[in-house]
Amino acid sequence: MHDLRCLSVRLCLAGVVAALLLSACSTTSKKSISNQQNAAIANTQLGSAYMNQGNLALAKDKLDRALAQDPSNPEVHSVRGMLFDKMGMPKDADAEFRTALRLAPKDPNVINNYAVFLCQRGRADEGVKLFEEAATNALYSTPEAAYTNAGVCLRSAKHDDQARAQFVKALQIKPSFVDAVVQLVELDMQHDNLPQARQLIDAYLTNFGENPDLLLLGVRVARAQKDQVGAQRYARKLQMNYPGTDQQRALAELDHTG
Question: Would the pLDDT of 52 be above 70?
Fold first, then answer.
């Protein structure tokens, strides 16, 4: 009996040791996976930064590493899609965007990135559908931007009335969203609706303060209306309050060309 008890104790100890070893392996495995995932995130961020700097070769190297480290990360595929688009490889870009969307069908950033790609490739209907999906996604913090992007996409496809409706949706959500106002003003100028364009500019400047883009547009609209006094008023504010900006330089170029 004594020998049996000893054997039982040994077996119990062996079981405990085995369990501890298995637990340690599991913990190590989880740490390894976590480290790989974190490395993939870091390499994706680096790849995106290099891509934005125009260093596509180094961007690809970082994103290839990220893909090997965590192929299930939708952000890796989404950024690779943008990279392949910049590299003139639309089929590869489309495949990466679709993979990202499959992995994260509700991620608004993934949706938005693919929508931008579709619009740039002339697939406006598909792009607008995705922008609208992003805009109605509760996780998307700037639906006004998604609606404005949808409008820009429609403008590029020469669907101006539909584009206007999207810009209006954006401003219903956030009346101070200047990008949508700029788009509406440009639409009105394009269609020679100068009084409405001027009204939009002045309403924004009165309610939400000065904006260099709208001041520059104000100069253009006022000059088109032959209102030199109004044009000078917009120009003076732009020169005084936004020196050295792209808009101020554009005004100088506008003055130079007449």
Answer: yes
Q: pLDDT at position 6, please? A: 40
* CA atoms of 119 and 134, how far apart (whole Å): 15
Place of tokens 């910049």: 86
Least confident of 11-15, 100-104, 143-147, 231-235: 11-15
Instruction: Tell me how far apart the alpha carbons of residues 20 and 40 are, in angstroms, rounded to a whole number.
Output: 30
State the pLDDT at residue 7: 42
Q: How far apart are CA 251 and CA 235, in angstroms?
A: 8
Joined together, the tokens standing for residue 199 give: 């009204």
Domains of the chain with bracketed CATH: 31-105 (1.25.40.10)
CA distances from 239 to 32, 144, 234, 243 (A): 57, 30, 9, 6
* pLDDT score, position 254: 87
Structure tokens at 250: 């554009």
d(CA 78, CA 110): 6
Instruction: For residue 13, name the pLDDT band (cuts at 50, 70, 90).
Output: very low
DSSP assigned state of 155: H
- Residue entry with tokens 């000065």: 210
Could you give the angle at the alpha carbon of 87 between the alpha carbons of 84 and 88, nearest 5°?
A: 95
Distance, CA of 152 to CA of 116 (rounded, Å): 10
Q: Which residues make Cβ contacts (< 8 Å) with residue 90, sequence separation at least 6?
A: 84, 121
